[in-house]
Design a protein that fits this description.
The protein is α/β, with parallel strands linked by helices and about 325 residues long. The protein is about 40% helix and about 20% strand. It folds into two domains: about 190 residues, Isopropylmalate Dehydrogenase (3-Layer(aba) Sandwich); about 130 residues, Isopropylmalate Dehydrogenase (3-Layer(aba) Sandwich). It is built from ten helices and twelve strands. The longest helix is centred in the middle third of the chain and has 17 residues. The chain binds adenosine-5'-triphosphate.
Length: about 325
């Protein structure tokens, strides 16, 4: 296959450390990539103002694919999240987050293998907020038929392609009767076109309890935006932490691959961030680019390293640095 052009956004905090690791592993797998690097993190604001977000988006439209590190948004900063802007402006409506147990990782559960499909453009992330007066603020949780049907279709198509057994729709339609009611109704309508896939419906709070009690029972989880965000961290916790969970943001002909985790300011600059999540996101990106063999090689290399239990970062019970772990993955996946 020819050379691919990919936009690389290193991001903030641990972002540059873990995206550099992913770059190395992808290149060592024999895939030729021309990296188009855009520094658009919160730490990239210079004396002349905002980082070149428009230019980065233009380039993502041109290349079709990006690999991205986490970008910080400070609460009460008055600024919108760059990550959310990228998702919304590029129409990346589906956020796909596979959560799979890694052999050898200290965790209460083994054999978890579920996938979160999160609606990525609306819900409480619509950005429609207003201050009513000094003591009251409101946010609008926008749910539309179009976006709800589109994400439901994505989830069921994914389940069919991957031969998954069930899709569970997470909702709170007993309380949010109009908004979650519409989301649930759309999921039911779409589910009717997939008779071979079981459609389960679960109220979000009960689903959280189910996940903690018996995570192996779950398959594909279809969620409105904020529920998907929260469930993703919960689910990452089931398999040993945020260092392990990759994500893909997918739209029409465009996709951004990233880790579920944020910029992890508490460990940034120490060289101990776990690069697994971004490396696995890189493997998802390669599969998306049609480089399945290289993607498989990387995934198998990562799993092999965990099986051996050596050269792991502290979050998964080891003492290795990001660089040592990356080198070990490289050695396993060539
Ligand atoms: P955001 O709101 O941007 O998603 P967050 O509040 O979820 O961020 P994170 O930055 O993801 O927070 O960090 C949460 C915890 O997980 C921190 O203790 C952090 O050190 C840990 N963590 C996140 N990513 C990694 C990683 N790659 N390796 C090791 N630990 C990590």
């Amino acid at each position: 296959m020819g050379k691919h052009s990919v936009v690389l956004i290193p991001g903030d905090g641990v972002g540059p450390e873990v995206t550099a690791a992913a770059q190395k592993v992808i290149e060592a797998a024999g895939v030729e990539i021309e990296w188009r690097i855009f520094e658009v993190g919160a730490e990239d604001w210079g004396p002349h103002g905002a980082p070149p977000l428009e230019a980065a988006m233009e380039e993502i439209r041109r290349c079709g694919v990006a690999l991205k590190g986490p970008i910080t948004t400070l609460p009460n900063s008055g600024l919108r999240s760059v990550t959310v802007m990228l998702r919304q402006n590029l129409g990346l409506y589906a956020n796909l987050r596979p959560i799979k147990s890694m052999p050898g990782v200290p965790s209460r559960y083994q054999d978890v293998d579920l996938v979160i499909v999160r609606e990525n453009t609306e819900g409480l992330y619509s950005g429609i907020e207003r201050r009513v007066n000094a003591d009251t603020a409101e946010a609008i949780r926008r749910i539309t038929r179009e976006a709800s049907r589109r994400i439901a279709r994505f989830a069921f198509e994914y389940a069919r392609r991957q031969r998954r057994q069930a899709v569970t729709t997470a909702h709170k339609a007993n309380i949010l009767q109009l908004s979650d009611g519409l989301f649930l109704q759309c999921a039911r309508e779409v589910a009717a076109d997939y008779p071979e896939i079981e459609h389960r419906e679960r109220i979000i709070d009960a689903l959280c309890m189910d996940l903690v009690l018996d995570p192996q029972r779950h398959d594909v989880l279809l969620c409105p935006n904020l529920y998907g965000d929260i469930l993703s961290d919960l689910a990452a916790g089931l398999i040993g932490g945020l260092g392990l969970a990759p994500a893909a943001n997918i739209g029409e002909g465009l996709a951004i691959f990233e880790a579920v985790h944020g910029s992890a300011p508490d460990i940034a600059g120490q060289g101990i961030a776990n690069p697994t999540a971004v490396i696995l996101a890189g493997a998802m990106m390669l599969a998306h680019l049609g480089e399945e063999a290289a993607a498989r090689k990387i995934e198998e290399g990562v799993r092999e390293l965990y099986v051996r239990g050596e050269h792991l970062t502290p979050d998964v019970g080891g003492q290795a640095s990001t660089e040592e772990m990356t080198e070990a993955i490289l050695a396993m996946s060539v």
